[in-house]
């Protein structure tokens, strides 16, 4: 830029940095960033081109949600060391926020997929799908585990992973395929919780990648029994060997008011 020594009006300086001149006036009033000169006759503020780097530092810190008080303290003791320390702290905060946004996006995608399934589903249909490996948090239950106890255990587990709310994760129930073969269609042995961000801790249940049978039923014990019998008939006719667990999840809980309207999705792995 030519004539760098020439002073700029508040309007010119604000336009140069893509901000409103009222912002510069406010920074001046709170003692954060002062103009180089003020005309004693009309009170007009003037800025030097060489103040640009200082203002850009302030604007960067404001964009990182650093408070004006923190910025004021930093500007009074500005150094490479203090700048590095401040930026490292904010980078860590940003990393946490990015991880949270990714988790939110995954949760939204999960619900969006469920809504799409609801609009195109056929309750009588059995399909084969391909699933990627996923790690699940699980808690053991049996027929004597009350609903209140189940909720308590889910809340306790989700707290360990610092979820902001229960529905940041997806969750469901598991039945061992061996129990299903024996006709125990309500022998739920675990609750599972899928954390919406990468988790690699000991003790997690790994749901293997591969082909799965998928079917649906409307919530009720008779409907569940009929659905599982249909799945095993389908597997026998197609010579599929089923293994591991059945993973059940309610896919329409966001759009219903009564439990009787719940639609349950079943997924069972087919042995390769």
Short summary:
This protein is 42% helix and 23% strand. The chain is an alpha+beta fold and 272 residues long.
Which band does the percent of strand residues land in? 15-25%
Number of strands: 11
**How helix-rich are the residues, as a percent range?**
40-55%
Helix run count = 8
Q: How is this fold's topology laid out?
A:
Elements: E1 8-9, H1 10-16, H2 21-29, E2 37-38, E3 45-47, H3 52-63, H4 68-76, H5 80-120, E4 127-131, E5 134-140, H6 147-160, E6 170-176, H7 177-181, E7 188-194, E8 205-207, E9 210-218, H8 221-237, E10 242-250, E11 263-270
Antiparallel strand pairs: 1-3, 2-3, 4-9, 5-7, 5-8, 6-7, 6-10, 9-11, 10-11
Helix pairs in contact: 1-2
What would your notes on this structure say?
This protein has 272 residues and is an alpha+beta fold. Helices cover 42% and strands 23% of the residues. The protein has 8 helices and 11 strands. The strands form 2 sheets. It has an 8-stranded antiparallel sheet. Helix 1 crosses helix 2. The longest helix has 41 residues. It is elongated. The relative contact order is 0.10. The mean pLDDT is 87.
Which tags fit this structure?
single chain, 8 helices, 272 residues, alpha+beta, 23% strand
């Amino acid at each position: 830029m030519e004539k760098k020594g020439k002073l700029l009006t508040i309007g010119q300086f604000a336009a140069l940095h893509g901000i409103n001149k009222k912002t510069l006036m406010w920074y001046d009033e709170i003692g954060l960033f002062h103009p180089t000169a003020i005309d004693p006759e009309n009170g007009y503020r003037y800025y030097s081109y060489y103040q640009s780097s200082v203002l850009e530092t302030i604007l960067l810190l404001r964009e990182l949600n650093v408070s004006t008080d923190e910025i004021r303290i930093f500007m009074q003791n500005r150094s490479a060391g203090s700048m590095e320390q401040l930026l490292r702290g904010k980078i860590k905060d940003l990393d946490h926020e990015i991880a949270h946004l990714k988790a939110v996006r995954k949760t939204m995608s999960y619900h969006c997929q469920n809504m799409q399934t609801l609009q195109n589903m056929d309750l009588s249909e059995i399909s084969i799908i391909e699933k990627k490996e996923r790690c699940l948090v699980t808690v053991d239950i049996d027929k004597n585990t009350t609903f209140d106890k189940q909720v308590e255990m889910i809340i306790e587990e989700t707290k360990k992973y610092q979820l902001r709310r229960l529905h940041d994760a997806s969750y469901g129930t598991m039945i061992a395929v061996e129990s299903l073969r024996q006709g125990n269609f309500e022998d739920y042995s675990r609750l599972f919780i899928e954390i919406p961000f990468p988790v690699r801790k000991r003790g997690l249940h790994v749901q293997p990648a591969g082909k799965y049978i998928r079917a649906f039923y409307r919530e009720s014990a008779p409907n569940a029994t009929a659905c599982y019998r249909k799945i095993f008939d389908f597997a026998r006719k197609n010579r599929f060997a089923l293994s591991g667990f059945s993973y059940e999840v309610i896919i329409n809980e966001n759009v219903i008011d009564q439990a009787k309207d719940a639609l349950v999705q079943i997924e069972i792995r087919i042995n390769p």
